[in-house]
Write a structure and sequence with these properties.
The chain is α+β, with helices and mostly antiparallel strands. The chain contains five helices and ten strands.
């Protein structure tokens, strides 16, 4: 039997985010950005050895780390707090018209399954130029500017999408290590800086043990 993904509105007062909901939901700029340098040597080696896309591996590790932080399962949507029971990871795809489209990939602990979904869905989005949106999962957004060497980036706050979002550019190779600087933007109602920093630490650990 296939488990259906669920989402539901919850009362902020019944959660650990009650104070944050009161403080930050109506703030003109409720987003916070952390910047961290990750060591992705292992990711690059596995990508080359097994013929797997580096971006796919990054997205899987992001989903794996996010799934271990309970704050990722709650998201402010409009003026409500919504609880989800599963996560997806978004990636930006270069489409057949020379523009970009958005593609949500359901996170699975099974790397092979995630890879299959990643390849199928990104190819579909590239060919059709139609976004693939998953509305019943909490989506972590990503944008990889892999062809550019950048030191950091700060996402914009649209006032519509409150999802956490990660941006990175090209990785940097040295004699022994490969480093990748990432920025992580999140809504303060969803999590505090300590939760975000823990997520980034977990992301590094998941990369190291992949």
């Amino acid at each position: 039997m296939i488990k259906k993904d669920m989402m539901q509105e919850i009362n902020p007062k019944d959660t650990t985010r009650a104070y944050a909901f009161e403080m930050w939901m109506k703030a003109p700029m409720p987003m916070v950005t952390l910047i961290k340098t990750l060591y992705v040597t292992r990711l690059r080696h596995i990508s080359k050895k097994r013929g797997l896309k580096f971006n796919m591996l990054m997205c899987w590790c992001i989903g794996k780390a996010a799934s271990q932080v309970k704050e990722f399962y709650m998201l402010p949507v409009g003026n409500k707090l919504i609880k989800y029971d599963s996560i997806a990871v978004n990636t930006i795809v270069a489409n057949s018209q020379g523009e970009v489209s958005s593609c949500d990939i359901p996170y699975s602990e099974d790397l092979s399954r995630f890879n299959e979904d990643y390849l199928h869905l990104t190819r579909q989005v590239a060919d059709t130029c139609e976004n693939h949106d998953i509305t019943d999962r909490m989506v972590v957004g990503t944008s990889a500017l892999a062809q550019y060497d950048i030191d950091g980036a700060v996402g914009m706050y649209s006032g519509i999408f409150n999802n956490p979002f990660m941006i990175w550019g090209a990785y940097r190779k040295s004699w022994l290590n490969t480093r990748l600087t990432v920025s992580f933007q999140f809504h303060h109602t969803q999590m505090d800086g300590a939760h975000a920093a823990r997520f980034l630490d977990l992301l590094q650990k998941e990369i190291n043990k992949l």
